[in-house]
Write a structure and sequence with these properties.
alpha/beta, five-stranded mixed sheet
Length: 165
């Protein structure tokens, strides 16, 4: 009996500074292992940070809209994707006056253009007010408008905890 090699599974959160990537990752792993909090003028995450929790490696990337760290952020994402494994990319975005922020849309396009076609990814819309959550839960049209503004025709839904080959 030969054992089948199981590829490592990675979940990478990608987004701009201040969207809450580190905080979300801390909630995924159930501990404060990724530095998070308020940072004035630039993001807290400067380099790719990986943390193994169970069978999954969670990755926190620097924010791409941080002009001082844009190159480092792009290199960190590229470095992460060079690891042999199965990747689940999750973009973290926030809304401004009910609209996706232009820099979040640009980040998604920038990253996806650099990846092979049909690379699956997910989107977390973070920091929604109770009122906005209620609107999305009761008016599917509002959520469709947000999805449309995020250019999600290549969006592929996936289960975070199911291994894909």
């Amino acid at each position: 009996d030969s054992k089948k090699m199981v590829k490592r599974q990675y979940v990478l959160l990608i987004g701009n500074p201040g969207t809450g990537k580190s905080t979300i990752l801390n909630s995924f792993v159930g501990a404060a292992v990724f530095k998070s909090g308020v940072s004035f003028g630039e993001g807290l995450t400067k380099v790719l940070q990986l943390h193994q929790h169970g069978d999954i490696y969670y990755g926190d990337t620097p924010g791409l809209a941080d002009t001082g760290l844009r190159k480092a952020a792009a290199e960190a994402i590229a470095e992460a994707l060079k690891q042999d494994g199965i990747y689940k990319l999750i973009f973290v975005v926030t809304l401004e006056s009910g609209r996706a922020r232009p820099q979040d849309i640009s980040t998604i396009k920038l990253v996806m253009e650099a990846l092979p076609a049909n690379t699956p990814y997910g989107i977390i819309i973070n920091k929604l007010s109770d009122n906005m959550m209620q609107r999305f839960n009761t008016n599917e049209g509002d959520l469709k408008k947000i999805k449309s503004s995020l250019d999600t025709e290549k969006f592929v839904a996936f289960d975070l905890y199911t291994q894909q080959s």
